[in-house]
Amino acid sequence: MRLSDAPKGAQAVVQSVTDAHPSDPIAQRLRDLGFVAGEPVRLVARGPLGGDPLLIQIGSTRFALRKTEAARVEVFVGGAA
Amino acid sequence: MRIALVGNPNCGKTALFNQLTGGRQKVANYAGVTVERKEGRFVAPSGRTLHILDLPGAYSFDATSPDEAITRDVCYGRYPGEAAPDLIVCVADATNLRLHLRFVLEVRRLGRPVVLALNMMDAARRRGIAIDVEGLSRRLGVPVVETIAVKRGGAKALMERIDASVPQVTPAPIDEADVEQLHAEVRAILADTVKLPRDTVALDDAIDRWALHPVFGLAILATLMFLIFQAVFSWAQPVMDGIEAGIAALGNGITSFLPADSALHSLLNDGVFAGLGAVLVFLPQILILFLFILVLEESGYLPRAAFLLDKMMFRVGLTGRAFIPLLSSFACAIPGIMATRSIQDPRDRLTTILVAPLMTCSARLPVYTLLIAAFIPNHAVWGIFNLQGIVLFTLYFAGIFSALAVAFVIKRMRKDKSEHALIMELPSYRLPNVRDIGLGLWERAMIFLKRVGGIILALTVLLWFLSSFPGPPPGATQPAIDYSIAGRLGRMLEYVFSPIGFNWQICVALVPGLAAREVAVAALGTVYAMSGSDDAVASQLGPVIAHQWSLATALSLLAWYVFAPQCMSTLAVIRRETNSWRNVAVAAGYLFGLAYLASLATYQIARALT
Hints:
The structure holds two protein chains of two kinds. By secondary structure, chain A is mostly beta strands.
């Protein structure tokens, strides 16, 4: 499932980050920030207007990601694929 | 010896830099770009003077912003005009090692001497994070010291380490590793050296539940903004009045021995001292606004505000980070445009700078009040509203709406349609440090006075020349300004401005009114041959223009002031902050264009209806 579709509060594990287009700098940045396979992440909150951006907890850091950015991250949520 | 300070954003690097150098720092820009270059020096215990460069925060050498590119290039020793550092002090937040250690590994791969400063060790201990510092140093192969940048003496260990260990430890350069490998290495190091009781701070979670709540979060933000506005208007005004009066008195005192009607007397009073006043009068608002902005930034709230508003701003082609600069522009576009430095993305930053002058700044108020009081009847509308109030509100709203519209048009017009990321860290809340805020304020004030002040002063003197020469012939009947170059320019402008209903008096006043918007009131007073203080002029002027102008002309002038960049200081600060005259031309061009169109529409429609 995409991180942008993950339910609020659920623990998830990063599977992969997909490039939206060849040599996608946003995907590269997400990987640099720790969005790599096996890393636990959690969707903490959604923005007040249209549920965008998303507040994502990874390690001890919180990032605000727009939905289109979070959609690049493929995750497992709690056992369900 | 040259030291470079690098680290992730929010690692407390700048606080550490302040701690090491105190006030001995120089803030400038890197050549050709508007990224801030901060250099300082300090005397080490051994007596040597060390030069230290505070590089912009970076998440990775794989740069995604001009800031990060500079950090990368300086660290690699390939930035033109910057010597490669002899020692890199890599700063990492001890409470956020999972993220920060990856960059440390990247820095280590450079093969230059590195010292790792584990900052915020006090917060780490409070949270029960146990770090095996020696183990970490062994694993990384670089010296590691603990620092607390916000505590006096909290950088002592770092200073001693820098002093003692000059280039001994040079880790071998390591070949390019891919991202996965680096992260795996971070995980392995952390597993061996760090014990983390829990990922988040309970207090952060608790505050964020409210601060980011869809309803309460927005309410908190609105309340904060209201408070800031109250402060800017109620605290700054007396100081601004005092500065104006003080400068004028100083000018009068200094020039009192000169003949009152000599050109030199007038140059000093109406040119030089008026220009000086025009520069200094902005300072109180700039300082108060930046005090709030710095406190919000240091405390970690600013990214939260950007989080709340990103969606709305993004729709019109801006970013959540543009909110604070635009809001500041309601007081004055100058601090607003200076505050866009917090937007790293150059495209988002430029759009924000271009629309900032559309926010209704406080200098428009004297013009608005004069015209509204003279032309709009003080009627009640539907029992509760007041017609004058509604007009004022409409003018404010017209500014906001047009800023959003212009941003949207810029988004549509630009060739680069690629996606620019938000990806924004929301750091832990922390108490702002008085010393860091003080130094930040000092920097802003200096940037404004040194770099913008010169341009404003020069242009004010130039406008004085235009308005004073040539002088009136003997036996002249019209006010002196009418015979000057400015007067002639105004008369010529009348051909251009008559379709929008401006008479020659308005046109003549527009020329010196370029200095600042509120100057137009005084300039109109001059044209209508009145004298006295601004308030006295305004009170005499009201009845005169109410008698001589049509309603359509007055409405047209109001519309003009919503858009027209009648403020050289704003144009000067755009030049300063974008490093380009082209952007100044674009801003001035589109603003004058919009002003003309809006006034034309207003005048023609109003005339057809009345």
